[in-house]
Every structure is written in structure tokens, then in C-alpha cells.
Amino acid sequence: xxxETTNTQTxxxxxxxxxxxxxxxxxxxxxxxxxxxxxxxxxxxxxxxxIVIRNDKFQDLxxxxxxxxxxxxxxxxxxxxxxxxxxKNHFPILVTYQYTSDDEVTLKLNTANLKFANTVKxxxxxxxxxxxxxxxxxxxxxxxxxxxxxxDFISDGNGTTxxxxxxxxxxxxxxxxxCCVIDGKGDSxxxxxxxxxxxxxxxxxxxxxxxxxxxELLIE
Length: 220
Known about the structure:
Radius of gyration: 21 Å
Structural class: mainly beta
Order of helices and strands: EEEEEEEEEEEEEEEE
Helix content: under 10%
Distance between the termini: 46 Å
Shape: elongated
CATH architecture of the largest domain: Sandwich
Largest sheet: 7 strands, mixed
Low-confidence stretches: 1-13, 138-142, 153-157
Strand order of the largest sheet: 1-6-3-2-16-14-9
Number of helices: 0
Number of domains: 2
Number of strands: 16
Mean pLDDT: 63
CATH topology of the largest domain: Immunoglobulin-like
């Protein structure tokens, strides 16, 4: 177990404990990597307190509070393969593309199968090269900055369709997409924390899920 210290600029008046789950899904390879972290903000140090994290992916995690009042403890790193995320229907960004003219490609991103997400951030990275050779037109919630587009929205269960029109894209181009889901508990292949037992339950503030998906699309 490793511990890294975070700097705090303000004085914390309450004791708080957060469980932070970060998971990365590669839809092209079906590979999952993840990390479970414990974040603490203490005004007064707490001793002899134990935390037990129960989940459905591996054995219970048991740890003691760090002596550091404000710190991050990495409790578990894990890797897995999943055939589920190879199925495009389980990938948050359902993508289709078509040439709408000789030099224009239209990408459609549909997030209809995202559930229980507080925030979703999407980015699309075009091949490196002369940025002046690429012109982008967007619809929906996306806004662009150079070659990266991001969108923050609250998922209402119906999903959002975003359309990107890219001009002067090379004939053989690889477009990389990333989707970052905050508190995205709707993925059955993701980590599922069932219960957290803390020495003093009043200081436990909940679990924060961050699921990050990547996918590369070859445009021919």
C-alpha cells in the first residue's frame, strides 16, 4: 500500500472520508484497469479506526487510517478482461460515421445507454497534423477547442446525440474517443462497492465512481 500526500489550502472543520474508484475501460482490447483510493480530510487525527470495503470484484479491503490528516491512500490496483465492453451496445459512446460529402465526415455520438451518471465528459481527438487543415462543425452539447471537444451534461436517462462534422480529414484516419463518467454506476462490468464499514460511520461521506472509456475508430 502506498500513500501520497495532498496539499490543502484551507483548514478542514469536519472529519471526512471518501472512497474513490477509478476505472479505465479500453473498448478495442476489452481490457479493464482500476484503482481504489481512500481520501481523508481530518481536522483532528483519528486513531484505531478501521475501514472495510466490500465489493463484488475481489476480496474485502481492510485498512487503517493514515496518520496523515489530509492524504490519499491507494488501497488496491486491479486488472481484468471483459468481453462485455467489446460489445458496442455496452460502450457509452455508440458511434457511427459516414461521408456526407467528398471531404466531410459526420460522426454521431449517442449516449443513450448511460445510466445513473451525474456528469459525463466526452472528448474526441483527431489525428495529429496541421490543425488548419481540419474544420469542425458541431451540434448538441459539444463545444470544441482545437482538436478536443468536451461536454458536461446531466444524464436524464434518454441520452444525448451529438453530431460532429469534420472536414479535410485524411483518407485513413484514426479518431480516438474518450468518455469520462462521474458516478457512473450503471455499467455491469464496472466495480460495484456493496458496503463500506468505517469505525465512525458519521465521517464516511460516500463513494465516488469515475469510469473512463477509450475507443479508437478507423475512418477509411
